[in-house]
Amino acid sequence: MLRVKKGAKFVALALTFGVMASAAFQGTNFLFNQVSGDGQEKQEAKLNMASAVSSTSDTADSSEQGDTSGTATVSAIAEAAMPSLVAITSQSVQEMMNWFGQSQVYESESSGSGIIIGQTDTELLIVTNNHVIDGAQTLSVGFIDETAAEAQVKGTDADHDIAVLSVNLSDLSEDTLSQIKVIQIGSSEELKVGEQVVAIGNALGYGQSVTTGIVSALDRAVTIDGVTNLLIQTDAAINPGNSGGALLNMSGQLVGINSAKYSDTTVEGMGYAIPVDDVTDIIENLMNRTVRTEKAPEGQQGFLGITGQDVTAEISEAYGMPKGVYIISVEEGSAAEKAGLQKGDIITKFDGTSVSSLSDLQNLIAYYSSGETVEVTYSRVSDGQYAEQTGEVTLGSNGDSTAASGK
After folding, report:
1. Residues classed as catalytic
2. pLDDT by residue (tens digit) across 115-161?
3. Distance between CA 96 and CA 81 in Å, rounded?
4. Superfamily of domain 188-278
5. Cβ-count burial of 12 within 10 angstroms (0-12 exposed, 13-18 middle, 19+ buried)?
6. At 196, is the secondary structure helix, strand, or coil?
7. Contact of 246 with 82, CB cutoff 8 Å
8. Where are the domains of the chain?
């Protein structure tokens, strides 16, 4: 299956890659589309989709309705939506070189927003932007009652800047559970230019704040890291920390996921949101993944058989290459060679999970045993452009490959 990515033209320039020094994060949980280990299928999570004719009774009291039929005041929408919004705090370890050429490691903390989009018997499900949680070693989610709980990554889709997190219900008090709620999903396809919208998010990490504006444009093509998405443009303020927050219509329904990543900081009144209709299938797929918590036993871990180097955001922007792992070489007789992977391919997903670095890929593979067949998504140059392809790889064992730096 071949899918051509827009806005990712190949530049025929030789790349010189440095030595990658980052270590794999050992505490990350990885995912697979299978039933749980006890043989019992888990409850399937569904999005709370608005009906074709939606009442505003869940959004605001009738006394707070605006003059326009089927709409509510901004204050009523904000009050009704706040229980569905969360603040996300991520902590990561950064490595940098000092003036003397020595490597120094330090912890960094960043803030973002999230939206409660589902709940099962065991977990609460939250959607946010992938860039909010990318590289995080620990994630904390703060709720409307000012309590917080640890979150795990269910899955990510870097191309659409979407990630789904889970919080164990057992980690939440009855009081917290009584105050939060799942957001109702509206339709971004029904939006019209000039229509009023409301944006809510954890701006600058100060806590949830509300802004309002209009839909300035629809299907606005924006290219970041070599990937083009069609976005909702709004003049509602979307600042750092708002990423992953909600863009709501005047019925209080979610129509977009705000992303400060796309915002133009050189002008005022130009923010962007990911249209919810474009990512509902992606979100539901990520919601229903099962967390793979245990690495394969030593000696049984799968091997891919490549050497590779990170295609960072900077390299992606400079050379029009997709972010991921650039294959420097493929070992003879390896699983990668048998699957048809080639030098110059860029691996972007492993078993449906986005891959942004070689350490990501190595750590993912550690959860899979040799002999397992896994779907791998990669980009290859075709007719002067990078074209996305998907294939299946049956992982080999350590003895199948002599690759030292790539599994």
Report:
1. 131, 161, 243
2. 999 999 999 999 999 989 887 888 999 999 999 999 999 888 888 99
3. 40
4. Trypsin-like serine proteases (2.40.10.10)
5. exposed
6. strand
7. no
8. 2-32+295-400, 188-278
